[in-house]
Specification:
The protein has three helices and six strands; from the N terminus they run βαββββαβα. The chain is an alpha+beta fold and 103 residues long. It has one domain (4-98). Helix content is 14%, strand content 19%. It has helices at 7-10, 67-72, 97-100; strands spanning 4-5, 12-14, 23-25, 27-28, 33-37, 92-96. A two-stranded antiparallel ribbon has the order 1-4.
Length: 103
């Protein structure tokens, strides 16, 4: 089970909407992590565009409707799965919360 914390108790500030401003945020528990896409390969999750959700920018330049659409966009060879045959597979990470955030 994934644990979550409220924004009042998380101590986390994160730029979910890619506006260069980190807002106080709810988050996953300290022993949990998130599937993330380190699109600039800097080892950090800089903002919500590197999470799978409605702030992910798709390859066509539009925002994803949800995380499933964002993940599907990484299926570069259109075989219905994400694996090492896809261009950006190596940029997928499972980030633990303490090492995940850019700030």
């Amino acid at each position: 089970m994934v644990e979550t914390t409220s924004k009042e108790n998380s101590g986390v500030y994160f730029d979910h909407d890619n506006n260069s401003f980190a807002e106080q945020s709810g988050w996953v528990g300290k022993d949990d992590g998130l599937l993330v896409f380190d699109k600039n390969n800097n080892g950090k999750i800089d903002d919500g565009s590197e999470l799978f959700g409605n702030n992910t920018i798709l390859s066509n330049g539009n925002k994803a409707a949800n995380g499933f659409e964002a993940l599907k966009d990484l299926d570069s060879n259109n075989d219905g799965k994400i694996d090492n045959q896809d261009t950006n597979f190596n940029n997928l990470k499972f980030g633990k919360t303490k090492t995940l955030m850019a700030n």
